[in-house]
Design goal:
The protein is 34% helix and 20% strand. The protein has one domain: Alpha-Beta Complex (Spore Coat Polysaccharide Biosynthesis Protein SpsA, Chain A), CATH 3.90.550.10. The strands form two sheets. An eight-stranded mixed sheet has the order 1-6-5-4-7-9-8-10, with helices on both faces. With 297 residues, it is α/β, with parallel strands linked by helices. Helix 5 runs parallel beside helix 8. Strand 2 and strand 3 form a beta hairpin.
Length: 297
């Protein structure tokens, strides 16, 4: 069986804050060992991982802000070691956009590690994730949020399903094959697990096991954590700039190894699902509290 590490690709990353949040009063600071990042409280955190996405960054930030106008949100961009001008664009945006937080991996660690970095530094009750290439449409976020709210008091994820996918024929065929493999081996019935736009309850997201490429298996992992998964139709569009970082071959090769690892995780999942509180420590009576005070004096 191939080697499978839950922390593959993550341990190497280092972080640097380009911009701190400024739109709320800060609570306790959160430190990653290199810098202190203030934790703030909000309803929605939008996490956007990017790597060499110059030209796509500011338009997408503005669209997110427009889609969530009137809501309590933050936007967290994670630059995964870009070597184009993405860092410059993000630094400029950070000066101009009040709700924007920018993190940077000084060593490239992959999309899943970038999402994880954003999650650990987020504070929203709902975590929204979308790709940084601009193909996901931010105006779909409110509908995804509304759909997730319909399952209350249950927790889970609303994952996008691209109804009119704007990709090459070969990319669509490769995705169809990957979907067949996930359905066959993982019993994943979500029709578009690879869609980048999704909304997840924070408490569920934090329970998911982390490994490189885990973002491709979110429906299976959310169900493993006891959450519900919704499939919600969303729009899809062509890139505004740049090119895809993946080929059909490398997606297939790493996907086979990852599926074996996910099967292992699912078989060893915690079966308890929920814990009922049977009893709690009884509060001390006034008499016993008085005795304790006498003994201490």
């Amino acid at each position: 069986m191939p080697s499978f590490s839950l922390f593959q690709g993550f341990g190497k990353s280092n972080f640097m804050t380009i911009s701190p949040p400024t739109h709320h009063t800060a609570d306790a600071p959160l430190s990653n060992g290199n810098v202190s990042i203030e934790r703030v409280s909000c309803d929605i955190s939008v996490i956007v991982p990017v790597m060499n996405e110059q030209g796509n960054i500011r338009p997408l930030i503005d669209e997110i802000g427009e889609a969530l106008k009137g809501r309590d949100y933050e936007i967290i961009y994670i630059d995964d070691g870009s070597d184009d001008s993405s860092d410059t664009e993000l630094a400029t945006a950070a000066e101009e956009v009040e709700r924007l937080i920018v993190l940077r991996h000084t060593v490239r660690a992959g999309q899943s590690a970038a999402i994880r970095s954003g999650l650990l530094r987020s504070s929203g009750k709902l975590i929204c994730v979308l790709d940084g290439d601009g193909q996901n449409v931010p105006s779909d976020l409110p509908h995804l949020i509304e759909q997730l709210e319909t399952i209350r008091p249950a927790r889970g994820m609303a994952g996008g399903v691209r109804t009119k996918r704007v990709d090459s024929y070969m990319r669509r065929k490769a995705s169809g094959f990957a979907r067949f493999i996930r359905k066959t081996m993982l019993k994943d019935t979500h029709p578009d697990s690879g869609c980048g736009i999704k909304v997840v309850d924070r408490d569920i997201f934090l329970q998911l096991p982390f490994f490189n490429h885990m973002h491709r298996f979110m429906p299976s992992l959310v169900r493993r954590a006891g959450g519900e998964v919704l499939a919600v139709p969303v729009a899809h569009r062509a890139r505004g700039a740049g090119a895809s970082k993946y080929t059909n071959i490398n997606r297939l090769l790493v996907g086979i190894v990852d599926i074996i690892g996910v099967i292992w995780l699912i078989r060893r999942a915690d079966k308890s699902q929920s814990v009922t509180i049977v009893s709690l420590p009884k509060p001390a009576s006034k008499k016993s509290a008085a005795k304790k005070k006498d003994h201490s004096s």
